[in-house]
Amino acid sequence: MGTIQKASRTFTGAKCEGGYRLIHAAQLFMAWWAYRQGHLEFRDLRAYFALHEMVARRCVMERAVKPRYMLQELVKLTGGKGQDQATASIHRLERAGLVTWGSSHISFAESPSQSAGDAEAFAIQFGKIANRRRRIPVPRRTIRWLAKASRPVLVATVLGHLFRCVYAKGQLVAAEGSISASWVAEVFQVDPRNVKRARATLEAIKWLSEKESDHWHRQRHGKRVVVNLQWQEAPRGQRDIQLRTPPRTASSPTELPPPETNRKLLNGFNNQKPAAAGHAGFCSKQDSTPTLRHIQPADLEDPQRVSVLFKQAVQAGYLKDSVARRLEFFAAAARAKRLGSRNSCGFFATIVRRGLWRNISQIDEDAARRALANHPELIYTSGPASTHPASVRHRVDADDLCDRTMIRNLIRISLNSIGSPQRQCSIPSGDGFSRNLNPYTDSPLPPRGRRVFGGLEQCQGGAVGEEAPRTRGVVP
User: Domain coordinates of the chain in residue numbers?
Assistant: First the structure.
């Protein structure tokens, strides 16, 4: 190991065992670019490195002696099966503009203009490499190993470390630098996970060694590594064990994932104000109009929404519009709420569509009557307006309630509205009158539908002129 000191910096390097060959960075990247663009096969890329080794072997020959290049030597360096494959590889390299082959000379293209392909795209990708206008001292042992490489990602990883870590100054070579797997993946368009796997393989064969570095340095520049300039390929018996790749997982896809993009993190602080405080939980927007096609549990709880469903059932022909049918409809809703523990809406829809009104019990009808006591306008909505207790209520004065004849007429009107025969009855008074009123609203309860008896009980009332109780409607 030697040291060259200059005014600006100190260069520390060592001699490369087995020698090295100076190859321009553009030549190495042009070969890889042609392979990625589909102009070359992987065996052609390995043949490209084998041709550099063949030229390096004849670099010490005298100028008067002409070199001679043979296909048998190329087949031996690449480990091919025959001269036909070697000849095909040379032809593809020549069509790509990378190599000129002859029996006495081999030349390599040194600029992208001499090779086939998209020069503009090559310049953009090649511009991501720093110090790209130089010749790289590639160890000849590494060149021979690349000529027999088994995976393209191994070649990309080795080239990336040569670009970032290996420099020459005179006869000394420095092989230390910082490199990250993401940089190799971005420049060579490979998957970063495969780059890390390939780097582990290079560390296993002692070609690469990691040097201790700070955490901030690894995050910004990558790991600090050293390329072994004294490295020598392992014997054939140990090569397969050392270069063995990990087995694929069961969920591994057949194709490699694409390279990651947009890796720059956002540095802004926009929209940092929290939202206004609101109710916890999710937002449930309910339709304003209920429908028989999609009944919600809330529709059975609200008498107004049940009344809308009744109108739709009448239009659909499930039942006729009458006070008795309306009460049965509300009783069916009460039965569905009472017995439908899992699907009360489906329970209610089945009663309406199949006409199972006979299954409604007195308990359900009483529950409907109690619910409708606060909404008498929902039960008296059929027939002429003059027969509605709600319309009669606005025409009755408080003084008229003291007259037995007036109250008797109102009872007849109420009985006519539910289809019951007219029967004369005396006026209930005192406690007997208040038993038929809702204790919360002082309004008469809805009729019992089909279960209404033929007449009212005869009750003895007080004398005319007695103070009548407060009422808002008519006693049925």
Answer: 9-235, 297-372, 385-451
Burial of 26 (0-12, 13-18, 19+ CB in 10 A): buried
CA 406 to chain CA centroid, Å, is 73
Global pTM reads 0.51
**Residue 373 Cα distances to 233, 246, 334, angstroms:** 98, 79, 14
Q: Cα(220)–Cα(411) distance, rounded to whole angstroms?
A: 94
Q: Which residues on neighbouring strands pair with residue 402, listed in sequence order? A: none
- DSSP letter (8 states) at residue 275: P
Helix, strand or coil for residue 411?
helix
Tokens (6 digits) for 322? 């009458």
d(CA 257, CA 250): 16
Neighbours of 284 (CB within 10 A): 6
Q: What's the first-to-final CA gap in the chain, in angstroms?
A: 117
Q: What is the pLDDT of residues 329-352, one digit of tens each?
A: 999 999 999 998 889 999 999 999
- Which 8-state DSSP code applies to residue 465? T
Q: Which residues pair with 5 in a beta bridge?
A: 10
Give me the residue label for tokens 């019990």: 361
Distance CA 21, CA 139 (A): 6
The model's pLDDT over 71-100, given as tens digits with 9 standing for 90+, comes to 999 999 998 888 899 999 999 999 999 999
Q: Is residue 166 within a helix (H) or strand (E), and if so which, with residue range?
A: strand 166-169
SS3 for 107?
Answer: strand
CA distance readout (Å), 359 to 331, 338, 453: 10, 13, 20
**Is the four-CA dihedral 464, 467, 473, 476 of positive or negative sign?**
negative
